[in-house]
Every structure is written in C-alpha cells, then in structure tokens.
Amino acid sequence: MITVALTEDTRVRLPSKDVQSVLEVELKEGARVAILAEIEEDGLTALWTLVKPERPEMEHLLGTVISIEGNLITIVDAQSNEHTVEVLEEALQGLQVGDMTTLGCRATRR
Prior knowledge:
The strands form two sheets. Strands 1, 2, 3, 4 and 5 form a five-stranded mixed β-sheet that branches. It contains one helix and nine strands, in the order ββββββββαβ. By secondary structure, the protein is mainly beta.
C-alpha cells in the first residue's frame, strides 16, 4: 500500500464531472485512482487525483440486427443475448435486419 497525502490544493477529477477541490469531494474507500504526486521530505503529496469509474461508462455491443423499430435497434450477440438500443437517426442509414453491427453505447447494466 502507498500512502499519499491530500491537501486543500489537491485537485480531483471524478467520472463525468468537472475538476473539483479535494475539499468538495467524498472519496470512497476502495476507489480506484490515478494520482500525480510530488515527493516531499515527509512523503508523497497529491497534486491531481483522477477517480476511475466503478464500471465502464461505454461498452461496445457486437451482434446481428434482428429488429429496427423507429430509432430502436435490437441485436442478438454471439451468446444469444438480445440488446435493444436507442440510436440517432443517422445510425440507421443503410442498416437492415440481418446486418452485423457494432454499437457503442453508455453502459447501463451490471
């Protein structure tokens, strides 16, 4: 284990948030972080702390299109799991049932 001191000057970046002062943030025990620190006489002091997301914010779904209704696409993956995703109209151009596709989307399950 490595101990790094946080000071009122330490800046923190949380997933999907603006940079904040460490005084404005509650860090959870066990959080995964990346730290930029400087070496001082009494140890390490954090200048910047990046808190990593608990789970991926984006995921890629690879599968075969089995349904297109409005702007909803349903695909089935190699494990026979169905995924229905709302997409922008531009993503529908040329897409047909039976096509193999990869969709990048915000992770909402797990």
